[in-house]
């Protein structure tokens, strides 16, 4: 057993255990034990299990990347402040201010790399497991007769398994079989393209324009084009099974990012604008006012007086007050002396208010919120009753 296998041995056992258990499940539901697709799908199952386990780190990565982008304008001001100061005291003070800035915004330069860093040992462990299938099947594996539950018989099955006629343990450089080369090239292209769109989705669609004009944003944009090339050139050394793992992992990341960015976009980003448009259309279909036209802010009045709603966005009336003609009702009314308005009136912004002091739109919003509160109360009651029954 080589030095790398010794270090990766516990992870190799865990990888083999997940693959074998997924394979057993597939055989249990009716797939052939020696089928190539059973072992291909066991690698897909391994990918899904790993990605589910690191979901918390994924959300931490999204948050860290967003925070690092948003903090860049202030970081540039800090760098300009200490631009020509090279003495140790100034450098130490700059580092302290940078750390304080990171803490204030909840940013961590290393959090954005956690999912990739955590997957790298699994990536190499899967690489070593696939490379060991041949020696393990022949009984010449220096690490023993098995890798966890992956024994000689199962290793022989996995070794002979194929994807569209290409063995999953073969690499582009290790064979002259054209089928292996075609399948490998297709998987490398898929891996590179998904890597590119995953990075583009994170940096271009979920960041405000102000956060995209700084050195870090330009560096991430450069990586968006460099990383797919790195995978394209290094992919010729990877077994087909590893390429399957990485491609499925990238597809998972794309879907997970799409859902997260759609539901929780960064403020001021393109994704936030699109979400605001979707919310506005949804409210319009329900007959509700836009989000900006929220329910009026009502101030408490003394008893005996009509409650007069006042909205934050209501413009103040300008121009001289109109003096009613002598002898008119408005001139003699006590309410007029106090500046009160009639029961049904058109306000200064052109909206008709009823006796309750609300416009039609505000009244609809109020009814909607009351019904929503009733539904929440009913759901809470049902949940409480279900707990009592248990």
TrEMBL record:
Question: In which compartments does the protein localize?
Answer: Cell membrane; Membrane
Does Transport count among this protein's keywords? yes
Domain named Membrane insertase YidC/Oxa/ALB C-terminal is located at 39-261
Q: How does it sit in the membrane?
A: Multi-pass membrane protein
Q: Which GO terms describe its cellular component?
A: plasma membrane
Q: Which GO terms describe its molecular function?
A: membrane insertase activity
The family database entries (InterPro entries) matched by this protein are listed as: YidC/ALB3/OXA1/COX18 (IPR001708), YidC/Oxa/ALB_C (IPR028055), YidC_ALB_C (IPR047196)
| Bias kind Acidic residues: ranges | 337-348
One of this protein's GO BP terms? protein insertion into membrane
Q: Where is the composition biased (Basic and acidic residues)?
A: 350-373
In which residue ranges is the amino acid composition biased (Basic residues)? 308-317, 378-390
Q: Which UniProt keywords apply?
A: Cell membrane, Chaperone, Membrane, Protein transport, Transmembrane, Transmembrane helix, Transport
Stretches that traverse the bilayer: 7-31, 37-59, 182-202, 223-246
Annotated region (Disordered), positions in chain: 280-390
Q: What does this protein do?
A: Required for the insertion and/or proper folding and/or complex formation of integral membrane proteins into the membrane. Involved in integration of membrane proteins that insert both dependently and independently of the Sec translocase complex, as well as at least some lipoproteins. Aids folding of multispanning membrane proteins.
Subunit note: Interacts with the Sec translocase complex via SecD. Specifically interacts with transmembrane segments of nascent integral membrane proteins during membrane integration.
Instruction: Report the family membership.
Output: Belongs to the OXA1/ALB3/YidC family. Type 1 subfamily.
Query: Under what name is this protein listed?
Result: Membrane protein insertase YidC
Lineage of source species: Bacteria, Bacillati, Actinomycetota, Actinomycetes, Micrococcales
Gene expressing this chain: yidC
